[in-house]
Amino acid sequence: MENINEQIRIIAEQYDIDLSKIKGSGPNGEVTLHDLEAYIKEHYFPKVKQEVKIFGIRKVIGDRLSRSYREAVHVTLNMEVEMDKIIEIREKLAKKLEKKPSYTVLMLKCIAKAIRDFIEINATMEGNKIMIYDNININIAVDSPIGLITPVIRDVDKKSLEELLSDYQDLVERAKKGILKEKDFVGGTFTVTNLGMFGIDSFTPIINPPQIAILGLNRIVKKPVIKDGEIKICNVMNLSLSFDHRAIDGAPAARFLQKVKHYLENPEEVFEVE
């Protein structure tokens, strides 16, 4: 019994849970391991929106792709996006917030809005089931003393920009100090990785299993673009989306990427500046 209590204490510490706030079902109201697991599932894991059984043609496609690719079942799409408007809105938000928000955080808000429009990409694939989630919990690839890790920010679409900036800064700081906890890695539904700061123009992100997609962000660079029949110098960036072809086809994945592009190029639909 003492070992079980110690296990409960250790797990609760990993999730910063005050055990006194959990209604226990054990003797004299003690919190059991089952109580703690139920609490963690309720507060740290995404709620399932839809469960889709894979069968018929989709199962045949999945089986064939698995056999064909074995270890590499992902496909990557690249798309160019103009970043002038988001650069402008960043300056306006900097005045409002009295500090410059990072491009990564601004792009996270745009990505989350696109995911809400195409919720089928907010999913995991386990066995013959695709689990589509209602909560948009985005894993962020962060460089740390132990290598590249992917802690999660929950409910990105529901958070205000201020909340998101605070959560992102907290995660990055704790990652660099090596003091992240188990709660920081569970419940992710989609992953974003940014290599722009390293001067990367395009790459093939590796899917974070069991998720079905990951979006890579690249460097912002000035280049000539033809607009309205004229050559103009614009700030552009490539988006690199890797997805599991067993779970989603190229056309819907491309439409999702187009929606991300739309919000990045029309950030006034995402952010309130005035």
TrEMBL record:
Protein name: Dihydrolipoyllysine-residue acetyltransferase component
GO MF terms held by the record: acetyltransferase activity; lipoic acid binding
The protein's required cofactors: (R)-lipoate
Every Peripheral subunit-binding (PSBD) domain range: 3-40
Family per record: Belongs to the 2-oxoacid dehydrogenase family.
Alphabetically ordered keywords of this record: Acyltransferase, Lipoyl, Transferase
Family annotation (Gene3D superfamilies): Chloramphenicol acetyltransferase-like domain, E3-binding domain
Transmembrane spans: none
InterPro entries, A to Z: 2-oxoacid_DH_actylTfrase, 2-oxoacid_DH_E2_comp, CAT-like_dom_sf, E3-bd_dom_sf, PSBD
Keyword Lipid biosynthesis set for record: no
Pfam families associated with the record: 2-oxoacid_dh, E3_binding
GO cellular component, one term: cytoplasm
